[in-house]
Amino acid sequence: DGGITQSPKYLFRKEGQNVTLSCEQNLNHDAMYWYRQDPGQGLRLIYYSQIVNDFQKGDIAEGYSVSREKKESFPLTVTSAQKNPTAFYLCASSYLAGNGYEQYFGPGTRLTVT
Amino acid sequence: GQQVMQIPQYQHVQEGEDFTTYCNSSTTLSNIQWYKQRPGGHPVFLIQLVKSGEVKKQKRLTFQFGEAKKNSSLHITATQTTDVGTYFCAGHDNAGNMLTFGGGTRLMVKP
Predict the structure, then answer these.
(1) Nearest CA to CA, how far is B15 from chain A (Å)?
(2) What is the mean pLDDT, run by run of 10 residues, along chain B of 111 residues?
(3) Which residues in chain B touch residue A50, judged by CB atoms under 8 angstroms apart?
(4) Residue among B88, B92, B103 minimizing CB distance to A98
């Protein structure tokens, strides 16, 4: 059954702690993306990766870090430097980056930091 | 940078009424995509438009891409409760690998 998995669905952390969100895909897609969604808001791009061992900053990369060591996996670390980390985080993938390719989204992780 | 705006932000309709959401970009787009996110869910791809003036239909949904490739619309005829959700437009500009999303229009349908 092909798709994108994100875990966990809900995550609670104390302020000052780093936390890593998991994203795995078995669609054989080259491109992967991380978005942040705040209540009633659209999606804002945090980081994207076009290929293994390569990634680029999106519009709101500050306070986040990523790695792409395997084609299937694109974990996102929310660092203590992120001022407002509580949000819904969505991972997506597409066959290739760029024009003409639809994005497939995972179910998301709701992160709450107190 | 590129900005994509959607109006309205919210829309309440009675079941059976029509619904339209509008999308406007600050720059010319190479394509526009539409996604639907059900409450508590994740965005799901609906369609992509590429050509200037293009119109595509999916059952009760009609999608249009403007002649200048800077605006788009989604029209739903005779809404049903299953149409409830947030509809996002998203566009690639001619340069980039990044998809810029609009803020979305949340549709609520009263049975």
Answers:
(1) 23
(2) 91 98 94 96 96 97 97 98 97 79 96 93
(3) 97
(4) B92
**Cβ B45–A104 below 8 Å, yes or no?**
yes
Are the beta carbons of A103 and B50 separated by less than 8 Å? no
For testing the chain B interface, which of A43, A48, A49 should be mutated: the one with the most B CBs within 10 Å? A43
Record: contact B45-A98, CB cut-off 8 A: no
Tokens 């029509």 sit on residue: B18
Own/partner contacts of B1-4, CB < 8 Å, gap of 24 or more, are B1/A59, B1/B100, B2/B26, B2/B27, B2/B91, B2/B93, B2/B96, B2/B100, B3/B100, B4/B89, B4/B90, B4/B91, B4/B100, B4/B101, B4/B102
pLDDT exceeding 70 applies to what percent of chain A? 98
List, as own/partner pairs, every contact residues B72-78 make where C-beta atoms lie below 8 angstroms and the sequence separation is at least 24, other chains included. B72/B22, B72/B23, B72/B32, B72/B34, B73/B20, B73/B21, B73/B22, B73/B23, B74/B20, B74/B21, B74/B23, B74/B34, B75/B18, B75/B19, B75/B20, B76/B18, B76/B19, B76/B20, B76/B107, B77/B18, B78/B16, B78/B17, B78/B18
Dump pLDDT digits (tens) for A54-106. 999 999 999 999 999 999 999 999 998 899 999 999 999 999 887 778 999 99
Chain B positions touching A106 (Cβ under 8 A) are: 42
Residue A1's pLDDT band, with cuts at 50, 70 and 90, is low
